[in-house]
Amino acid sequence: MGALGAIDRAVGVFESTGNTRVLLFCLLIGALIAWMRDSGGVEALVSGLMKRGLASTPRRAALAPALAGTVIFVETNVSLLSSGVLGQRLFDAHGLSRERLAYIIDSTSAPVSTLILLNGWGAYALGLVEPFGFESPIGVVAGTIPWNFYALLTLGGVYFTVFTGRVFGPMKTAGQGRSVLAEDEEPIAPTRAIYMWLPLAVMILGALGFMAWTGGGNILAGSGSQSILWAICLAMLVAAILLALGKAFPKGGLQERGFAGIAEMVPVVTILFLSIALGDSLRVLGTGAFLSGVAAQFVSPIIVPAVLFVVAGVTAFMTGTSWAHMAS
């Protein structure tokens, strides 16, 4: 019956409108990224940055995706994919490894989302605090930012490696020079940078606006999943109009590349779906309650935050996903 129950919990993922919106959003962002990339918008933006000297050196090339990951704070996946597709071209142009790019974008997107709380994570954190009856829940959540040492140190580490050019451990030898993955890719001719930056700007501003709207004027009280889904739909509409007017693709090419981009995201969405389902299973098993119960027997209240950090890290490592341990 355990296996059958696991199947039911997997199906139950879609009972949550929030989960369904997140999964749908991840598919749609694949289409938007494909449009920006295949239309030549990314190449045009990269060419513009290099011509203006903003990405003319390896250090500046590494700084670009770090800044993009910092500025695009409305949603972790948006930050990852957008800064990744931008940084990929820059890193290839300067012979930097994509392994280092992966480190930079992954170590900026998630930490920034937890430090700049004008997004779904901020709404989630506020929801955790409100039941305790604080006079100013928003103030409590904002007051946790200076104590978010993990995010601050991780983000600081990224900018340290970017500005100094120093890397450590396996990163020193990982992917020396141009990545093997880049050798088989056909170059895309640059067209117009607006094909990339305008849809991204619409999505970021739209997400903030929709969060304020769904929250009755309070961004932190808004629905993160609903807002980001509406924002990606709005950004796709703007991108489709731009690309159609600019005749960036041949007839039928817009739909073809959109579905191809969605297909590229299927493995990611599958992993995310299974992570959420695993989180539900861990909740049913009482994993979180068990670990906290064991820790409570030996832990002084003064070191609870440190123990919670360690337990969360161990749980995420053992289950193979951070989504699952947050849900549990």
Would you give an account of this structure?
Its main location: membrane. With 328 residues, the chain is mainly α. It has one domain (14-275). The protein has helices spanning 2-11, 17-38, 41-51, 58-71, 76-93, 98-115, 120-129, 137-143, 149-164, 194-214, 224-245, 253-285, 287-296, 304-319, 322-327. The longest helix is centred in the C-terminal third of the chain and has 33 residues, at 253-285.
Topology overview:
Layout lengths: L1 H10 L5 H22 L2 H11 L6 H14 L4 H18 L4 H18 L4 H10 L7 H7 L5 H16 L29 H21 L9 H22 L7 H33 L1 H10 L7 H16 L2 H6 L1
Question: What would you say about this model in short?
Answer:
The protein is mostly helical.
What is the number of helices? 15
How would you spell out the order of helices and strands? HHHHHHHHHHHHHHH
* Total domain modules: 1
Biggest sheet overview: none
Number of strands: 0
Shape: globular
Strand content: under 5%
Poorly predicted residue ranges: 177-182
| CA-atom Rg in angstroms | 21 Å
Q: State the secondary-structure class.
A: mainly alpha
Give the helix level as a range of percent: over 70%
Please tell me the overall pLDDT. Answer: 81
Distance between the termini: 21 Å
Keywords:
328 residues; Na/H_Antiport_NhaC-like_C; mainly alpha; transmembrane helix; transmembrane; single chain; cell membrane; 15 helices
